[in-house]
Amino acid sequence: MNQRTLCIIKPDAVRKKIQGSIIQKISDAGFRILGMKMIFLSDSDAGKFYEIHKERPFYKELCTFMTSGPVVVIALEKENAVADYRKLIGATDPAEAEEGTIRKLYADSKSENAVHGSDSEANGIKEVAFFFAEYELV
Ligand code: ATP
Ligand code: MG
């Protein structure tokens, strides 16, 4: 079954100008890009997007980081997209990520880890809808 998942190329990766390499890896892995845009997250949007982490000790640091520069948000579609994309990006902490994964290749630390990925089919749908209206998706 086709699933949607949301990729965010985080501010660290955009600062390093490696968004092109990341998009290439995602395309090569067979994901279809339904929508893509570069945006600057507001404090309020970052806070809302990461609301599930509100009680975690890193919440404030995470929101500050995600609003520290532009990000690229990408709506992706593929068979089994959620699990396959999380496998492609690797573990949250690049030190624990498998060889060849996006975070192993491009992430600097557990907090500045290059990309976001939705963690369930329901959140994939919800997170794509957070950034894209249906008419913006091809
Ligand atoms: P993402 O949701 O960004 O795809 P993830 O699902 O691998 O990453 P989560 O546990 O959902 O990881 O954490 C969300 C984000 O919060 C992480 O990607 C990272 O940027 C940051 N983060 C997670 N744990 C820590 C931590 N211990 N210290 C600092 N930042 C953290
Ligand atoms: Mg997560």
Broad structural category? alpha+beta
**CA radius of gyration:** 14 Å
CATH class identity: Alpha Beta
| Outline | globular
Q: How many domains comprise the coordinates?
A: 1
Number of strands: 4
Examine the coordinates and then state which fold CATH places here, giving the name of the CATH topology.
Alpha-Beta Plaits
Chemical compounds bound to the protein: adenosine-5'-triphosphate, magnesium ion
Separation of the first and last Cα atoms: 18 Å
What is the overall number of helices?
7
CATH level 4 superfamily: Nucleoside diphosphate kinase-like domain
Q: Describe the largest sheet.
A: 4 strands, antiparallel
| Level-2 CATH architecture | 2-Layer Sandwich
Strand content: 15-25%
Average pLDDT number: 98
Helix content: 25-40%
Low-pLDDT windows of residues: none
Model description:
Helix content is 40%, strand content 20%. With 138 residues, it is of the alpha+beta class. It has one domain (2-136): 2-Layer Sandwich (Alpha-Beta Plaits), CATH 3.30.70.141. The mean pLDDT is 98. The chain binds adenosine-5'-triphosphate and magnesium ion (MG). Adenosine-5'-triphosphate binds at residues 53, 58, 61-62, 92, 110-111, 113, 116-117, 119.
Short description:
The protein is an alpha+beta fold and 138 residues long. Helix content is 40%, strand content 20%.
What's the topology here?
Elements: E1 2-9, H1 11-15, H2 19-28, E2 32-39, H3 43-49, H4 59-66, E3 71-79, H5 81-89, H6 102-106, E4 115-117, H7 121-131
Antiparallel strand pairs: 1-3, 1-4, 2-3
Bound molecules: adenosine-5'-triphosphate (ATP) and magnesium ion.
